[in-house]
């Protein structure tokens, strides 16, 4: 059982800006902040740095779209639909690429196909949207097909140049220029962000958060965490150690991750971990070795909280029973 709470920072949008009648619906069939999240936004820094539309760091240099992501590959395999964000005509389709994602040794193999399995849709008044990294063999539309907002196009995958399961949504105007749907006027003002948006219902901005929390009997391998395979569903009372791990996105230097385990006899272990650098995703774990013949039988609770400048960004709780 996992309980969670999120402090999501909503930008002060007054309502959707009119872009010749062009408005976007959510391109993913999941609930942002619960079972999916936005990992990266369009890079608005014209120089060597990277900032998102809030002047924060959820982007990277030269990123030209918005990444709607899933916490783990297990979520990807379960299947989450990608949907047309607006009505239009499909003008480009690719499918059949595997979901192994990007590694440095695949650079040459993926050259020219970085988008992976993808779809391009042409909309009224020259607007265009592109959907990249769809799951292999999931594409459900063909070139020339008319679609409505909400038409299923495929599923979130990790094809092409993708380091994690997500769909990369690109928006382009009638000149082919990339447009940030969260701030389409093209003027980044950190003091007064304004209310310009292409979203019919603007997604709430979440500057970072927890993706997974689980128990294990040793510090798990990071790949197993990213695959959604690391959390134990049960542990024996004679487990050699009791470990809790937290997997999270958007950490910034100076953030604090609070981890704790409590059991039938009270606190087992607790720590406040200061994070030392900005990262897209990361994990941390704490644990304690068994000191006697067995752990006290019963229910154990793990908690995690991600804190930035004294404000809680996200928290989770999970439980396990030792017998």
UniProtKB/TrEMBL annotation:
Record PANTHER family: MUREIN HYDROLASE ACTIVATOR ENVC (PTHR21666:SF270), PEPTIDASE-RELATED (PTHR21666)
GO molecular function: metalloendopeptidase activity
Segment forming the signal sequence: 1-19
Gene3D superfamilies: Glucose Permease (Domain IIA)
Protein name: Peptidase M24
InterPro entries tied to this protein: Cell_wall_metabolism_enzyme, Dup_hybrid_motif, M23ase_b-sheet_dom
Alphabetically ordered keywords of this record: Signal
Source species of the chain: Sulfitobacter alexandrii
Domain M23ase beta-sheet core as annotated: residue spans: 62-181
């Amino acid at each position: 059982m996992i309980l969670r709470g999120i402090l999501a920072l909503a930008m002060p949008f007054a309502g959707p800006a009119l872009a010749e009648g062009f408005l976007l619906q959510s391109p993913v069939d999941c609930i942002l902040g619960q079972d999916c999240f936005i990992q990266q936004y369009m890079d608005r820094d014209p120089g060597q740095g990277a900032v998102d539309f809030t002047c924060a760091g959820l982007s990277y240099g030269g990123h030209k779209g918005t990444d709607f992501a899933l916490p783990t590959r297990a979520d990807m395999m379960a299947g989450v639909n990608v949907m047309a964000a607006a009505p239009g005509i499909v003008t480009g389709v690719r499918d059949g690429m595997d979901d192994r994602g990007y590694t440095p040794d695949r650079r040459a193999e993926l050259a020219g196909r970085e988008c992976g399995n993808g779809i391009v849709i042409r909309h009224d008044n020259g607007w265009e949207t592109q959907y990249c990294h769809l799951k292999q063999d999931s594409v459900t539309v063909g070139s020339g097909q008319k679609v409505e907002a909400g038409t299923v196009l495929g599923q979130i995958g990790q094809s092409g140049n993708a380091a994690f399961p997500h769909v990369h949504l690109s928006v382009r105007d009638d000149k082919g220029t990339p447009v940030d749907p969260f701030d389409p006027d093209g003027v980044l003002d950190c003091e007064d962000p304004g209310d310009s948006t292409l979203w019919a219902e603007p997604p709430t901005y979440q500057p970072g958060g927890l993706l997974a929390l689980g128990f294990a009997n040793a510090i798990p391998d990071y790949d197993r965490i990213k695959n959604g395979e690391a959390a134990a569903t049960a542990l024996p009372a004679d487990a050699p150690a009791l470990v809790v791990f937290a997997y999270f996105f958007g950490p910034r230097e100076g953030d604090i991750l609070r981890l704790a385990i409590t059991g039938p006899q009270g606190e087992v272990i607790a720590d406040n971990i200061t994070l030392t650098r900005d990262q897209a995703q990361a994990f941390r774990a704490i644990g304690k070795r068994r000191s006697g013949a067995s752990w006290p039988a019963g229910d154990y609770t793990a908690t995690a909280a991600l804190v930035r400048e004294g404000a809680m960004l996200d928290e989770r709780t999970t439980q396990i029973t030792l017998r």
